[in-house]
Design goal:
The chain is of the alpha+beta class and 163 residues long. It is built from 4 helices and 8 strands. Strands 1, 2, 3, 4, 5, 6, 7 and 8 form an 8-stranded mixed β-sheet that branches.
């Protein structure tokens, strides 16, 4: 089974509520590279994941950051909503600004996936020059139309960034 087929089987054909964190330090944003997502089979996106029942959105986001990046965070302001709808994937993503409190940055795991199914490939801070060189096809849609961290920080409201 291809990576893309695995993603569609695991996460497709249902509406998912995701929490995501924008962590910016020294003009660099923290991103996680996943395989099997995006037009080119890999996608860089801010840390985050599916909200779990009976846990607050901030607590879900703290859990996701720890799992994916090893970092402990504090959740700050709610920023914006992004709706991703490219069948069979459909997700409503709630973005919050976050700040590092502790921990050590490393590539984490998705605990709901076995060791053979892991899709997280890399975790690192990147600046906009690096993002621009990479190209938009490898970046989460929230970066489309953004040319600076300031523009990213000023997003507010509801977005459906897809083409």
């Amino acid at each position: 089974m291809s990576d893309r087929d695995f993603i569609h089987q695991k996460y497709g054909n249902r509406l998912r509520l995701r929490v995501c964190g924008i962590c910016i330090e020294n003009g660099h944003i923290l991103l996680v590279r996943h395989k099997g997502l995006g037009e080119e089979g890999e996608l860089w996106l801010p840390p985050g994941g599916e909200a779990e029942w009976d846990s607050s959105l901030p607590d879900n986001l703290k859990r996701e950051f720890k799992e994916e990046t090893g970092l402990e965070i504090s959740v700050k302001d709610f920023l914006f909503v992004h709706e991703h709808l490219q069948a069979p994937l459909h997700a409503v993503e709630l973005f919050f600004s976050v700040q590092r409190k502790g921990g050590h940055l490393h590539r984490g795991t998705d605990p709901e996936l076995s060791s053979q199914e892991q899709i997280i490939q890399e975790v690192r801070f990147m600046n906009f020059d690096e993002l621009n060189r990479m190209g938009m096809k490898k970046l989460h849609a929230l970066f489309h139309g953004c040319s600076s961290m300031e523009e990213l920080n000023n997003k507010a409201g509801y977005f459906k960034f897809e083409k």
